[in-house]
Amino acid sequence: MTGNENNYLSIKLSDRKSKTIFRDLESKVINCNVNSDMILNQVEKALVRIQHKHKLEFYITEIEFISSDSFSEDIYEQMTFRLLSNIISKEHPNSA
After folding, report:
1. For the segment 44-77, what is each residue's pLDDT rounded down to a tens digit?
2. 69 touches 62 (CB < 8 A)
3. d(CA 60, CA 67)
4. Distance of CA 27 to the CA centre of its chain
5. Which end of the chain is more exposed for a tag (fewer CB within 10 A), N or C?
6. Which residues partner with 9 through β-bridges?
């Protein structure tokens, strides 16, 4: 049976490099479909794409997610790219 896929992602940015903090917002871990390593891998791919496209440098310092969200090979990369693109278009309108 197929159904909707739902994924939550929150990221915090900084201009200084620091260790990334992860917060799993799942209160009861019943089905762990995603984990911090998988999400970090996807988020970093999007970050490299954004930095290459816009020639800006910043860092992800915090990631919030829900471990029971739907698994996907690239959903967090897509979400991160879209989030960062929206932020950049508002903060640096001539960078698009």
Report:
1. 999 999 999 999 998 999 999 999 898 899 999 9
2. no
3. 19
4. 20
5. N
6. 65
Cβ-based neighbours of 7, under 8 Å, separated by 6 or more: 34, 65, 66, 69, 70, 72, 75, 76, 79
Taking CB atoms within 8 Å and a gap of at least 24, the contacts of 28-31 are 29/67, 29/68, 30/68, 31/68
What tokens were used for 14?
């900084």
For 31, the 3-state DSSP assignment is coil
Report whether pLDDT(3) > 70. no
CA–CA dist 73, 56 (Å, integer): 26
**pLDDT at residue 93 in the model:** 73
Mean model confidence pLDDT for the chain: 89
